[in-house]
Amino acid sequence: MNFERVEAADLTASTVVFVHGAMSRGSHFRASTELISEFHTVIYDRRGYAGSGLVGTGNETYEDHASDLVDLIEATSNRGSTVIGHSHGGGIALLAAIQRPDLVRSVGLWEPLLGWLPWWDPYPRKAAARVAAMSNPLEIAKDTIFHFGLNWDSVGADVQAKLVEQSPAYQADMRASLRAPFDLADLIIPVVVGIGSHGMPVACGPAPRLASELRTTLIEFDTGHDIQRESPQLMAEFVRTAVNASNGA
Q1: Banded model confidence at residue 150, pLDDT cuts 50, 70, 90
Q2: Which tens digit of pLDDT belongs to each residue from 15-36?
Q3: How many CB atoms lie within 10 A of CB 79?
Q4: CA distance 138 to 65
Q5: Cα(178)–Cα(158) distance, integer angstroms
Q6: Cα 201 to Cα 203: distance, rounded to the nearest angstrom
Q7: Which of 85, 121, 134, 190 has a 20 to 30 A CA-CA distance from 177?
Q8: DSSP H/E element including 81
Q9: Closest CA to 234 of 216, 220, 247
Q10: The pLDDT of residue 248 is above 90
């Protein structure tokens, strides 16, 4: 997989690994990592996306992505890591934390989408089921643009081609989200949940209950769903809160 690790001056510093969501890439976190130089940081492209496109099969599950995340933590840190999961990446971060609590020291969830939970907003599950049933990569790519609130014809040909190329990975993400990959009750490490004041309603609406289920507080910043690009300074603040949670602060 394609990944990038930046070392802090203090070799004993905490490591933070960022997990991107569907139809995204690790480089979207780069502006935020530049603001947290006190930590070792790792950004990467999940299977099927951007620089890891060639290792994707279009059949990846949460288990596959969690296994990749665990392998990455083992390869880049000898003291475990705080994991920041954005959107669809939140479920991957949680599954890795449940499987390897010795490696994942804490998790920061920014507007996670956990549509398989019975009390979650039903829209993500309905949208995922629709995409899972599609057979045309072009239609899958157009669905992505629709959920970005854009018109297909308004994006350039290069962007269109990249979206079509990554549509198998996006469909795999949607298919994976139709079943429960873990039980929240099995989580034993600290978690921080964050939402934006103008974030994604289907993520923000269920977030208070998620925070309650995880016995943690809910953080709200004046930003949107894509905090890492819209407000990297707030993502940096969120990361520091998640790292502090791993230290019992």
Answers
A1: confident
A2: 999 999 999 999 999 999 999 9
A3: 12
A4: 24
A5: 30
A6: 5
A7: 190
A8: strand 81-86
A9: 220
A10: no
How many other CB atoms are there within 10 angstroms of residue 249's CB atom? Answer: 9
Q: Which residue has the tokens 């502090």?
A: 244
Confidence of residue 152 (pLDDT cuts 50, 70, 90): very high
Contact 77, 13 (CB under 8 A): no
- Which residue in 132, 110, 118 sits closest to 242, CA to CA? 110
pLDDT of residue 249: 61
30 forms bridges with which residues in the sheet? none
CA distance 42 to 80: 12
For the record, the structure tokens of 132 come out as 């899972």
DSSP structure class, residue 214: T
**Token couple for 80:** 């475990």
Crossing angle of helices 137-147 and 123-132, rounded to 10°: 160
The partner residues of 221 in beta bridges, in order of sequence, read: 196
Q: How much is the pTM?
A: 0.97
Question: Residue for token digits 């999961």?
Answer: 85
Place of tokens 């309905």: 126
Indicate the CATH number for domain 3-114+181-246: 3.40.50.1820
Rounded Cα distance between 55 and 64, Å, is 12
Q: Is 5 exposed, middle or buried (0-12, 13-18, 19+ CB in 10 A)?
A: middle
| The amino acid at 105 | R
Q: Please name which of 247, 244, 194, 226 lies closest in space to residue 32, comparing C-alpha atoms.
A: 226
Tokens representing residue 53 in the block: 């496109």
